[in-house]
Structure formats: C-alpha cells, structure tokens
Design brief:
This protein has about 120 residues and is of the alpha+beta class. The chain has one domain: Gcn5-related N-acetyltransferase (GNAT) (Aminopeptidase). It is built from two helices and six strands. A six-stranded mixed β-sheet has the order 1-2-3-4-6-5, with helices on one face. Bound molecules: coenzyme A. The site of coenzyme A (COA) has 19 residues, from strand 3, helix 1 and helix 2. This is N-terminal acetyltransferase A complex catalytic subunit ard1. Belongs to the acetyltransferase family. ARD1 subfamily. GO terms for molecular function: protein N-terminal-serine acetyltransferase activity; protein-N-terminal-glutamate acetyltransferase activity.
Length: about 120
C-alpha cells in the first residue's frame, strides 16, 4: 500500500492472477547514509506459467518504476541458497551479484544470498 507503483501482477486471459512481484523502497536509507534503493520482498509465478518470461518481466517493470518514481540507485533482495530457479533469474537473466551470504537468515536455518543490482544505467 505504501509503494503501489513498484509492485505488479501478471494475469491470464480471464484476469486471474498468475504471478506477482512485491517490492518496497528503503526510504530511511538516506538517513543511514545509504543511497535510496528498492528491495524485492517476494516474487512468485504459478507453476503452470513458469519459464515463459513472466518473472523477468515483473522484475523489469518493478525495477523501471523504482528508478522513474523513486530515483532508486540499486535494488536488493534475499534468496535461499538452494533456490536454483530464482538465483538463475536474478544472476543470469537480470545481472544481480551476490553482495554477501547471510548465515541462517531463514527460520529453518538456511543461508540467504543477499543480492544487488545497480540501477544507475537503467
Ligand atoms: C523463481 C520464479 C519466480 C521464476 O519465475 P518464471 O516466470 O518461471 O521465470 P522466467 O520465465 O522469467 O525465467 C527467467 C530466467 O530465470 C531462470 N530460471 C527460471 N526458472 C528456472 C529454473 N527452474 N531453473 C534454472 N533457471 C531458471 C532462467 O535463466 C530463465 O531464463 P530462460 O527461461 O531464458 O532460461 C518461479 O520459479 C517461482 O515462482 N518459484 C517459486 C517462488 C520463488 O522461489 N520465488 C523467489 C523467492 S526469492
């Protein structure tokens, strides 16, 4: 509700939601001496609609809006170390890099990769 411009849904031909990306802006970043940046909280595509490029499109729409609406300088996210599909999307398709590994980030003890993508040339 706070940053509606940077979250998107994908719909099928009947208007049913088959994918979404939910993102926020770290607005207090400037107070902490960090540049304004976006953060992707969650993205998912319905199983039968995967590998069609929907997640890539949702991410690009969100990233573009982060820059045009909020002048975000980069986007960050966390992903489970074991999530090969999501890591493929972020690193290979979108160009994210691993900023750091956060040990036992998730409740079940799994490590997270903290990833970042500069939006300066967007
Ligand atoms: C991760 C997820 C959102 C990807 O959605 P998608 O719409 O299938 O992704 P896209 O079709 O846009 O894929 C873009 C690229 O991501 C990579 N990718 C996607 N799925 C992959 C898989 N299963 N294995 C390896 N790479 C994969 C590929 O590089 C792919 O490009 P290509 O199809 O040209 O090879 C989807 O698998 C999903 O909903 N997973 C469950 C929820 C989840 O894990 N969310 C991320 C939490 S951080």
């Amino acid at each position: 509700m706070t940053w509606p411009q940077i979250s998107y849904v994908a719909e099928d031909h009947k208007g049913r939601i088959v994918g979404y990306v939910l993102a926020k802006i770290e607005e207090d970043a400037e107070e902490k001496g960090e540049p304004i940046h976006g953060h992707v909280n969650s993205i998912s595509v319905l199983r039968s609609y995967r590998r069609l490029g929907l997640a890539k499109k949702l991410m690009l729409l969100s990233q573009e809006a982060m820059v045009s609406v909020y002048k975000a300088q980069y986007v960050s996210l966390h992903v489970r170390k074991s999530n090969k599909a999501a890591i493929g999307l972020y690193r290979d398709t979108l160009g994210f890099e691993v900023a750091q590994v956060e040990k036992k980030y998730y409740g079940d003890g799994e490590d997270a990769l903290s990833m970042r993508l500069s939006l300066k040339d967007t």
